[in-house]
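Hi R.,

Here's the chain you asked about this morning:
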Amino acid sequence: MPTIAAPSRSELIEHLIRTRIAGEVATPRENNLAHYRELANGNRYYWLGLELGDRWTDEQDVLAVMAERCGVDEDPEHRQGQDTIDPELTVDGLDRAAALLRKAAQDRQRVLVATGHPGGLLDVHAQTAAALSAVGCDLVRVPLGLTADEGVVAQLAGVAMYERGATLWHTHSPQPMAEILTALPQEGEELPDLVIADHGWAGCAAQFGIETVGYADCNDPALFLGENEGTLSVCVPLDDHVINPRFYEPMTAYLLDAAGLAGPSPLV
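And here is the predicted structure, written out as tokens:
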């Protein structure tokens, strides 16, 4: 559960801008455009587990979606320097995510929470997992012994992550999620009704046809394209690794409050 009071929408927007979770973010324009180009050129590393086919081969089309859904500068001639995430879109995404969390709580859904960005978003996901568990949702327990990308699939605080050499790693790969979703039915376990994740963990789950909430940075266009096509349920735009992970605490508090999952007597 969050340890701070939930901010209002306007308070959260001010906080997002001040901490550079949104607004003028640290990710430079040239990095964003390079990733859009790689995705358009068919580099599957940037597809984050989604199957985009030949539908996004023009990087200008990718840029247009990113301007609409993330809030980057829409001008294709802006090639270097500062880029942006629209904080209004971040909060809109949190509101849409909250609606799915509220439904998951009311229906006691089976939920899987995962992150490819443990250095930034682990606490966001862990608090979300704890809040859902507290109201009776069935949190997926990751089968033991799963391996992917020369590492293992670990689960801590209810959150699935990639571990290698006794260290939690940042990864864009969809393979750890694919291993989980393949193993569950093999062990007689049901697939989740809802996945809350980021990077390839979110893209893979959405491609499996599971309702998915994904967090994504402005240089990770695939999840925004997935939401645009209706494969991904919700994509929340944000800088996914700001200088202090505690900066995400007001955002998490807002999300759980909007979902009815905050406080001593969460909505059930």
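One quick note: Residues 1-262 form a domain with the Rossmann fold fold (CATH 3.40.50).

Cheers,
M.
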